[in-house]
Amino acid sequence: MTTTRTGRRQRIAKIVTGCVVVLAVAGVALAGLPAWATGPTPDLPQKDVDAWVMPLDRYILVSEVTATYVESLQTIPCMAAAGYTWEVPKRDIEAASNHLGDVTVQRPLTAAVVQDRGYHPAPTHDPGLLATQELNARPISDAEYEAFVACLKKVEKVIPLPSWQRDQASQYAVALSNAAYDAAQSDGPVVAAARQWQVCMGGTFLHQPLPASPADMPSLSVADRFATNVEGSTVSQAERDLALKDVGCQATSGYRNALYEAEWKRQASVPKKDEDLFNRVGNANEAYRETVLAALARLQLAGN
């Protein structure tokens, strides 16, 4: 007997594809952000402007698509032992995670990033997505489904899934991080340093004024010149050179350091109502992220 019952297919689709259901609480966090006159963020890390280490980083989970991809890969030998061929399509996890955006936080450009892709956005095309969707769509017998669920339970004993509370903390941390980054742009020292950045950049590009802040790069003239929003467009050396100059000017103008301090100041405190949540979660999300990424590295090294 085969079945295509919605519940079963959705269960497998979530595990294999990494679909994420964003809880409404994230929207509440964004809508109710205070002016940071709040309680301290627990256990502040050491500052590191080069790595852009921030107080809320440790509460952010690994992306949902990464976690579910690792789970699915780990079921392969178990399913084989049960007599089933469970072929999981290879995924571009970085691109898939960028597309999902569930753990995306804003960061200034770095030399490594712009050397790779200039002002072009982070890749979001995952070649394995179509094959994964086809896998999800195939009919599956009751016996195979039960075997999959049993294998999944074994996997989740080794790497238990985060609780709802930890998911909530991660969503709050992402929302608060992005709000802090945006608000930091209006700090006096950041605005003053941005003016120096503009001077360093020469003020114009193709006779068009550059924006008042590097946060608004690429400008329309830059984006048009280098087709940064055109899918499939290539990154030219001229684009890389301009973006590298941008990154260099952010450093020499003092913008990068000023922005880091302004964002840190905001992330160093959290809404009073969330203090207890972050205290209870502690290092659990950071440990889970490291465990999942280590498992992914081992699986990829083994050829999965």
Break the fold down into its secondary structure elements and pairings.
Elements: E1 2-3, H1 6-17, H2 24-31, E2 39-40, H3 64-74, H4 76-81, H5 93-100, H6 111-117, H7 129-137, E3 140-141, H8 142-158, H9 164-184, H10 188-201, E4 204-205, E5 208-209, H11 220-226, H12 237-252, H13 255-267, E6 269-270, H14 272-281, H15 284-301
Antiparallel strand pairs: 1-3, 2-6, 4-5
Helix pairs in contact: 1-3, 1-7, 2-9, 3-5, 3-15, 6-12, 9-13, 9-14, 10-12, 10-13
Low-confidence stretches: 1-34
Give the N-terminus to C-terminus distance in angstroms.
30 Å
Structural class assignment:
mainly alpha
* Spatial strand arrangement across the major sheet: 1-3
Query: Major sheet: size, sense and barrel closure?
Result: 2 strands, antiparallel
Which range best describes the helical content: under 10%, 10-25%, 25-40%, 40-55%, 55-70% or over 70%? 55-70%
Account of the protein in words:
- The chain is mainly alpha-helical and 304 residues long.
- It has one domain (2-32, 40-301).
- Helix content is 58%, strand content 4%.
- The protein has 15 helices and six strands.
- It has helices at residues 6-17, 24-31, 64-74, 76-81, 93-100, 111-117, 129-137, 142-158, 164-184, 188-201, 220-226, 237-252, 255-267, 272-281, 284-301; strands at 2-3, 39-40, 140-141, 204-205, 208-209, 269-270.
- A two-stranded antiparallel sheet has the order 1-3. A two-stranded antiparallel sheet has the order 2-6. Strands 4-5 form a two-stranded antiparallel sheet.
- α10 crosses α12 (237-252).
- The longest helix is centred in the middle third of the chain and has 21 residues, at 164-184.
- Residues 1-34 have low confidence and may be disordered.
